[in-house]
Specification:
The chain is α/β, with parallel strands linked by helices and 215 residues long. It has five helices and ten strands. It has an eight-stranded parallel beta barrel with strand order 1-2-3-4-5-6-7-8.
Amino acid sequence: MNLKLKICGMREPQNMSSIAALQPDYLGLIFFKGSPRNVVGEIFQGDQKIKKTGVFVNASEEEILEKIKKYQLSALQLHGEESPEFITNLKQKISEEIELIKVFSIGNEFDFGKLQPYEDVVDYFLFDTLGKSKGGNGIRFNWEVLQDYPSTTPFFLSGGIGPDDTAAVKELYHTFQKRQKEDLFYGIDVNSKFETAPAVKDAEALKTFRERLYN
């Protein structure tokens, strides 16, 4: 199984060091004042092979560019109402190597027509649970909605994925595999279900989760 693992909501340097030792593919840094995981100070820089992903909610272009430089970001996750035009303009000012992820929140159903304007603009979609907060709600949405995924853009699965969800993740992956579209289910994004406190992840729980996922 070739799923990528993104661990989001990281901040504390020592904890980041412990989690980076597990070699996830992405580490998410949230730059949003409304989040209890908001990053403001120095972080653990660590392994350059792990893609540091800046998570933004309707941030200005200036703020995003400043954070890319300060934190050496390899990917951007846009969690607000950023338009295709905004993202297109942003792309012209950043390195081609920086990946762009656009988030869409899903409840019991979803209009996949919303994805179309972003198809040729971003590298990945990320599907999160529609909730009170912009992420970190700790709730799963109805994954069956993705059975009819019509896009050719690969996606991350997010929203309340916890230690006991490896079997369900594998089942969804095999559903795409049967349709010979497993490359569309690109990765999973985990956060609050692995926390002992906001922005502090349980390294042992994540280690066990990773082993179960890939074995």
